[in-house]
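Kindly review these tokens for lecture notes.

. . .
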Amino acid sequence: MLYEELRIIEEELKRIKNMGYIKNIRKKREGELATFLSLLNNKNICHKIDIKLKKDFTKKYITIFNANIEPQKENEIKRLKDKYGFLSNNIKKDKIFKLSVQANYSTQAENKYLFKLILDYKKEKLFLAVYDHHFNLKECKAGWDFSYLESIYKKKSPYLILIKVWEQTIDKVKHYKFYDYYIWKLKSFNEFLKLIEDGTIRVTFKIDIYKKGPKKGEICNRGIVFEIQELELNKLYDK
């Protein structure tokens, strides 16, 4: 059944590719995904296939999935933010925790701490390790069980469609051209772990605070994201 859905969406992609520049359906914000989805004749075919859009000439990482940190999830996020976070440029009275961490080297945030991912195959867990500026270990307890990550990984669609987008302003309105696409098939969870270990896959924390409104000053968890660069996709997927 999934193969049939892939065949249908490929026909859709070929049709949309030949349409040229399409007007952004969003008025005052980025809308390439919403615009693309609006062009599909059968929108249900996207539910079981992972679709990513990427503007040409950008080097942004591509999200694999989000996975909240353990244990105690939101309480643990608050603890990390309060203990190891750093002051926001906009709101000086509270801390944020926004940084990208890898396993092959340590990351220094805007404070005195260094952060690194550590895979413990005996405990079957991926840890977030925190060091001081002398590289003395402060703690290594927050993280993710392999079983938890694997459960999220296996819920993903085995197929990723990466669609390349050109953007052009016409009559002061953004237009998008969906000019190319690639279909990828996901490799095993063991390959995923190897790519974390060698630094190909990183984890980005997006723990902010609300800057206005009724929740001003409260934690705003925008996600803890496992991500990979487009140039490295062939390590996680077969083309």
User: Anything to note?
Assistant: The CA atoms of residues 57 and 148 lie 35 Å apart. Residues 2-17 form the longest helix (16 residues).
